[in-house]
Amino acid sequence: MAAKRHPLPIETRAEVVELSKAGKSERQIALQVGSSKGQVGRILRDQRDKIENLKDVQGNIPNNLKRRKLVDIAPKYCEIENACVLFLERAKEHGIPVTGPMLRTLALREAENCNIQGFSASEGWLDRVKRRHGIHGRHLSGEAASANKVVVMNWMEQIPELIEGYDPKNIFNCDETGLYYKQTTSLSLVMPGDACHGGKAQKERLTLLICCSWMGEKVKPLIIGKSTRPRCLRSVDLENMSISYKSQKSSWMNGDIFSWWINEFESLMYQAGRKVLLFMDNATVHNIVEQMEFRAVKVVFFPKNTTCSTQPCDAGIIQTVKLLYRKQLHNFILSALTHECGEVDPYKEINLARVIVWLFRAWRDLKPATIVKCFSHCGFSKAGDIVEPQQTPLLETEAETLLSAEDEQMEIFPPVVEPEELFDKVVTELKDQLEEVSIQAIAPTEIITTEDDVAEIPNNKQVLQALETIELYAAGRGDDEVLGGGFNLAWYRQIIEERAHMEATQTTIEDFFKKTSL
C-alpha cells in the first residue's frame, strides 16, 4: 500500500517560495525542508501566487492561518472580498446589522461593476470569507451603538457637579421595562428525528418600574397590567401588596400612573427626613414632573438617546432582575412537569399572583454590589471618593415604619444561609430520621391505633405546594415579613427541595426481583 501523503504546513510552503527566490534549486530546497523534489516543484508551480497573497505588510504569514488549508484561505476574488469587508466595517460604525444575504447581494453588485464573469456569491464562498476574516454571527443587544459618545463623555464630566451635596445613599435612579412574564426561550434541546416546532407564543406583557439608590437601597417595585381587578387577586388588598400594582388598558406607563408613583416616592422620602436626587430618562410620560413641585426630591434627566450608556438601570440592573425572574419561572415549569408527570400545562398555571411572588424574590435576590457596580459603570463618582458596596434595607412600605426606625432601619431580609450549612442541616435531620427508623425495626412496639388517631404525614410535593400557597397569600396581603423575614419560607423551601432530591433514589435491577426461600 502506498504511503500516506503528508502536505506541508503553510509556513513551510512559504519558506519554499523564499528559498526559490534566493536562487536555490528544487533539490536543495527539498533537502532543506525535508520533502521531495516533486512536492517542491508542485508548490512552486501551483501555489506560489496564492502564498504571496497571504502575506501581510511585513511579509509574514498570519498566525491564525498557518493551520488551515491553503485552498480555503487563498482569496480568488480579492476586489469583491475587500469591498464586503469595507462594507461590514462601515455598517458597524453606524450600528447597522449585516446579514449573509446582504453580503452576497453586495458581492454580486461588485462582480458586475468589475466585469467578473462566473461569480455566483455562493454560500461556500461566503463561508470562506468568514473564516478568512474571523466573521461570526452575533445577537445585537442594547442601544449603545446609537449613543453620541461626545455627549456621554460631557455628561459624565458633569456628574460630580450634579451630585455635589448629596450622599450616595440619597442618589436614586428609576426606569421602566417590559416583562413578558411567560416567555422563556426560542431554543430547545430535542431528540434525533423530532420535529422542532414551538407552541403558541407567550406574549402576555407587564410593565415593571424599579428604583434603587447608588448604595444598593431598593424601592418597592411597581407593575402595570391590563386588568383593573385581576381574577387571581380578587380577594387581595391591592394597596398593601409586596409589589405595587396599577392597571392600564395596554399595560403601559402613562402620566397618571407615573405621577402617582413619584408622589408616593416623594412622600416616603419626606417623612423619612431625606433629601434625594432622582435620575430618570426623558420619556414622554416623565415630562409631567416638570409641572410638579417636590419637597424632598430633585429630578434630573439624562441626555436624550444616551440612557443605554448613562443610566445605571440600563447598565445591568434590569437585566439581572429579569434573569433572576426567569430562574423562578424555569423552576416552576420544571416542578410542574416533574410532579404532575406532564399532565398539566405549566403556562396555564402562571397568573399574576405567581408573577408577583417571583418578582418579589428576584428583586430581593438582586445584590446591592451589583447596583453599586452599575452606578460606577455609568460614571457616578465623586472626586477622591471610593464608594464601597454596602447592604442597605429595602424601603419600608409604610411611612410609620420609616419614622420609627430612627437609629437604624429594620432589616427585612436576614442573611442568606450558606449552601454548606444548609446541606449539613439536611444531612443531620436525615440521619436522625434513619436512626429512629432503625430503632423501630429492631424493637417494634405494639401500638393499637385507629385510622382516626393516625394523621397522615404529607409528602414533599404536598409541602412545597402548601408553601407556595402561603407565599401567594403573603404576597397578596403585603406580608413581607412572611416572605423574607423571621418566618424564612425561602430557607425552608430549600430544605424540602434538598430532602426531595436526596430521597429520590435510583431504582436498581435488584428491585425487580423478589427474594424467595428455597
TrEMBL record:
Signal peptide: none annotated. It comes from the Eukaryota. Keywords: DNA-binding. Transmembrane segments: none annotated. InterPro entries: CenT-Element_Derived, DDE_SF_endonuclease_dom, Homeodomain-like_sf, HTH_CenpB_DNA-bd_dom, WH-like_DNA-bd_sf. GO terms for cellular component: nucleus. Belongs to the tigger transposable element derived protein family. This is Tigger transposable element-derived protein 6. It comes from Oopsacas minuta.
